Structures are given as structure tokens and as C-alpha cells.
Amino acid sequence: MSGAPAAETQALQAVEFRVLGTRIHGIDLGQAAAWIDAWAQADVRAHIATVNPEFVMRARHDSEFHDVLERTRLNVPDGVGVVVAGRLGRRRVPGRVTGVALMYEAMQLAAVREWPVALVGGAPGVAEAAAERLVHDVPGLRPPHTYGGARGAEGDDAAREFLREARPQILCVGYGAPHQEFWIDRNLDADAACVAIGVGGTLDYLSGRVPRAPAALRSAGLEWAYRLWRQPSRWRRMRVLPVFAALAAREILDRKTKDAAE
User: Parallel, antiparallel, or unpaired: how do β-strands 16-19 and 22-25 relate?
Assistant: First the structure.
């Protein structure tokens, strides 16, 4: 948030809360889209993270990842667990802001504003297939630039060259957490002033490579269960969810006990 205007800082701090030490902003999809629009019009470098319980648990033991989430301009609540934790902590959290929904809002803005956009990440061919889907779904959208290079620091020279040539106003990075957050943090600089969103598996969904959970399961907050059923190997990542729930509940109870004592 360094260099951010005072009014912007105050506005975002007003809706900021923390879950187990990770900062999250309690805003809805429309508000997030408004921030994207404002930053992109002003050619501001802005990194947006879509935070879920796995992010929070990772940040607890990975100080580098925690520090990146402290430098982002916006951390939207993508995950039922962080929404519930915020609400139980007596914070106004309208609901989830998923990577898929946020990406579509950003593409709609780009179509109206005639902004260039870029998609980064995924297996070979995934970004290209996702770009085709977006052009079909979003009338007026310019065909997105695509890049599928290495997610690690060894690919940064090529990544920066891609950004210099594409000059996107909106950049969606789908390497998955924490790799996409590290990639954005390393590769965005004054020469790549754009709004960059870590979108996780969104490119896989759009390309058709991975099916998305039915709407009823998403509405019920059970998308994680569908993904586990489709990809059983995800159990290693998802085993942190009950631990997150227990730690978040204890944090809330400790806070309420402290408030009552005061």
C-alpha cells in the first residue's frame, strides 16, 4: 500500500479485518470492480489477492507469503471460511468474491474501456483456450494476450519482456497460490503499471480443462467438496480446513473473552 493516496488508504482500512493475522477486505463484488476500474484508469500498479482459508494457513508459517499479502492493494474474501470468520468477528462481510466472478467483472470493464488484457499461467494451451472463451462471453473484449512461461524466478526475464510488449491494463495470473502471488509481486513494477489479479484455477475452468462445481453447490459453500471429489489429490491441501476452522473459532472466542473482561 506504499504510495497510496490517503483517501484510498483510509477507505480500504475502514473495511479491513484480520483472520489469524492475514488482512482481508470486507467488500462485495461491485465494490471490488469499482476499485479495479479506478486503479486501471489511473494507471496504478495494483495487486489483488483472492484470499481463502488455504491462503491464511499458508501465511501463518510462510513469512514471505504473509509479507506479500501485506503489500497487496486489495485482499478479497474468496472462501466461505474467511467470510464466516469475519462475520463471527462482528465485521461486515457481504459475501464471497471469487476469482471467477472478479475476473469476469474485470473483463467487462476492459471491454467497455477498450483496455488490453493479459492471461498468464496454466498448463500449455490453457491460457489460449481461456482467452477464446472470454472473447466469446464478453462482447467487445479485445483478444487477450497470453503467456504460459515458468512460474518461478528463473522465468522472470521472459515474463517482464511479455508485460512490456503486451502492456495490459488488466492482468490475470493463474499459477495457483502462492506461486501467482509471488509472480505478481516480483514482476510488476513501474513499467508494468496495471491491475493484476491472482485467479487460481479460473483459467482451468474457462478452458474447460477442469469442470466447475454446479451453481447449487457453489451457493451452499460446498465447491471445495466438489473439487475434492473431482481431484482427490487435493486432500493434502484441504486437510488444513478443519485446522483453520478450529484456530479461527478460538481466535474469535479469545477476542470476545478479552472484550468482556474490559
Answer: antiparallel
Q: Do residues 46 and 74 make contact, with C-beta atoms less than 8 angstroms apart?
A: yes
The answer for residues whose C-beta is within 8 angstroms of residue 42's C-beta and 6 or more apart is: none
* DSSP codes of every residue in 166-204: H--SEEEE-S-TTHHHHHHHHH--GGG-SEEEE-TTHHH
Tell me the H-state helices in the chain: 6-14, 29-41, 53-61, 63-71, 80-88, 99-113, 126-137, 156-166, 179-187, 202-207, 215-219, 223-230, 235-238, 240-261
Whole-angstrom distance, CA of residue 74 vs CA of residue 23:
9
Stated as kind and residue range, the H or E segment containing 139 is none
Q: State the Cα–Cα distance between residues 40 and 74, nearest whole angstrom.
A: 14
Give the distance from CA 19 to its chain's centroid. Answer: 16
pLDDT tens string 42-63? 999 999 999 999 999 999 999 9
Is-contact 145 118, C-beta < 8 A? yes
pLDDT at 36 (0 to 100):
98
Contacting residues for 177 by C-beta, under 8 A, at least 6 apart: 54, 55, 58, 198, 200
- Write down the pTM of the prediction: 0.89
